[in-house]
């Protein structure tokens, strides 16, 4: 071993779902099957490329203002970043600096553990119960901060706002982050609570409901004091996180509320139909309030199904880790994509009995 090895920061990175470059039915990373608002295409076309010689606006004012208007908050309550991964990572760096462990569920977005280890933040996972529900009392113990997604991933389970509020209320000495990547497909957002709890940060993304995973836009909404701490950390790290194209496209997306709502309606409709189809095929699933379904089959091995699907050009997500080794996470695609999925599964099961 080289002497310098001992001073290298070694990390076990987050493993994203596959992004195959050939054409497949892609139900593995919770992307939206529909394109973004037509205004986004127009904004990109009209972008003044001569301006590319200039740095972008470091304060991202156009986008924070558009989001502030949409969510009825002040612009100084909004922080934007390069996808919510960037925003969440910045939150870990800024708010989780205690000797006490940060709490998050044992089955959740696996990036939380990666950031905690990267930044050397102590953490303790709280076990979801046998039905994969959060046990709110587990979060009443002393801790250095709390983060959880609602709806949770990969379970797709939405916890009602009173459960979320109980956890926030019990943790007023630390920062509580609610990661609402899938909230638009679910129910009430914790944004309702930001005026009442000064320890709350709500993080959302353009990657799912807004069909813009490729543009990398995420945001946090909180009170001005916490947003200032986030900006101070950001300006100490990289002043220009958001490029001009992302800012322009983001603004247009937020403006088109009707398109946004219609897209969500379509996915929820396909999701509810997909639940019925899964039942018909003998699957069981956790009740989904997101744009994906976490499903298991009592008679077919999840890994085998995953591999058979993949061989036939249908990608879903499989982890094989403890407690979820028999589960597949299936993103809700278009009606046609889901029909292809179910047709394949039906054929596969008929030939394998
Ligand atoms: C998809 C996802 C994110 C990150 O999305 P970005 O593309 O980085 O905005 C964050 N949290 C959860 C729970 C997610 O599923």
Structure description:
The chain has helices at 38-45, 61-71, 83-95, 111-118, 161-169, 224-235, 244-255, 257-280, 302-311, 335-352; strands spanning 25-26, 78-81, 102-105, 123-126, 146-149, 176-179, 200-205, 218-221, 284-285, 292-296, 314-315, 328-331. By secondary structure, it is of the alpha/beta class. It folds into two domains: 3-34 and 258-352, Alpha-Beta Complex (Aspartate Aminotransferase, domain 1), CATH 3.90.1150; 38-256, Aspartate Aminotransferase, domain 2. The strands form four sheets. The protein has a five-stranded mixed sheet with strand order 2-8-7-6-5, with helices on both faces. Strands 9-10-12 form a three-stranded antiparallel sheet. A two-stranded parallel sheet has the order 1-11. Strand 9 (284-285) and strand 10 (292-296) form a beta hairpin. The longest helix has 24 residues, at 257-280. It is globular and about 60 Å long. Residues 30, 83-85, 109, 149, 153, 179, 181, 205, 207, 213, 218 line the site of pyridoxal-5'-phosphate (PLP).
Helix and strand arrangement:
Blueprint: E1 25-26, H1 38-45, H2 61-71, E2 78-81, H3 83-95, E3 102-105, H4 111-118, E4 123-126, E5 146-149, H5 161-169, E6 176-179, E7 200-205, E8 218-221, H6 224-235, H7 244-255, H8 257-280, E9 284-285, E10 292-296, H9 302-311, E11 314-315, E12 328-331, H10 335-352
Parallel strand pairs: 1-11, 3-4, 5-6, 6-7
Antiparallel strand pairs: 2-8, 7-8, 9-10, 10-12
Helix pairs in contact: 1-7, 2-7, 3-4, 3-6
The protein binds pyridoxal-5'-phosphate (PLP).
Pyridoxal-5'-phosphate binds at residues 30, 83-85, 109, 149, 153, 179, 181, 205, 207, 213, 218.
């Amino acid at each position: 071993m080289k002497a310098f090895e001992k001073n290298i920061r070694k990390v076990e990175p987050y493993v994203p779902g596959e992004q195959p470059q050939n054409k497949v039915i892609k139900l593995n990373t919770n992307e939206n099957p529909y394109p973004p608002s037509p205004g986004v295409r127009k904004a990109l076309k009209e972008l003044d490329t001569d301006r590319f010689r200039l740095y972008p606006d470091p304060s991202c004012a156009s986008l924070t203002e558009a989001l502030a208007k949409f969510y009825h908050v002040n612009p100084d309550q909004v922080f934007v970043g390069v996808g919510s991964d960037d925003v969440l990572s910045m939150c870990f760096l800024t708010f989780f600096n205690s000797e006490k462990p940060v709490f998050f569920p044992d089955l959740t977005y696996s990036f939380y553990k990666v950031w905690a280890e990267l930044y050397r933040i102590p953490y303790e996972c709280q076990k979801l119960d046998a039905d994969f529900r959060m046990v709110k009392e587990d979060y009443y113990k002393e801790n250095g901060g709390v983060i959880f997604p609602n709806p949770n991933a990969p379970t797709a389970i939405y916890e009602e706002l009173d459960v979320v509020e109980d956890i926030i209320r019990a943790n007023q000495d630390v920062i509580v982050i609610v990661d609402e990547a899938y909230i638009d497909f679910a129910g009430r957002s914790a944004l309702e609570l930001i005026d009442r709890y000064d320890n709350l940060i709500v993080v959302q993304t353009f990657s799912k409901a807004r069909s813009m995973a490729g543009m990398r836009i995420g945001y946090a909404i909180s009170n001005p004091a916490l947003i200032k701490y986030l900006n101070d950390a950001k300006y100490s790290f990289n002043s220009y996180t958001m490029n001009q194209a992302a800012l322009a496209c983001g603004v247009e997306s937020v403006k088109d509320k009707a398109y946004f709502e219609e897209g969500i309606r379509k996915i929820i409709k396909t999701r509810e139909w997909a639940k019925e189809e899964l039942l018909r095929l003998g699957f069981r699933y956790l009740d989904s309030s997101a744009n994906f379904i976490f499903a298991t089959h009592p008679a077919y091995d999840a890994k085998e199904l995953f591999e058979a699907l993949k061989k036939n050009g249908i990608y879903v997500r499989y982890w094989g880790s403890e407690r979820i080794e028999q589960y597949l996470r299936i993103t809700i695609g278009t009606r046609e994509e889901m029909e292809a999925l179910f047709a394949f599964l039906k054929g596969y099961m008929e030939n394998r009995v």
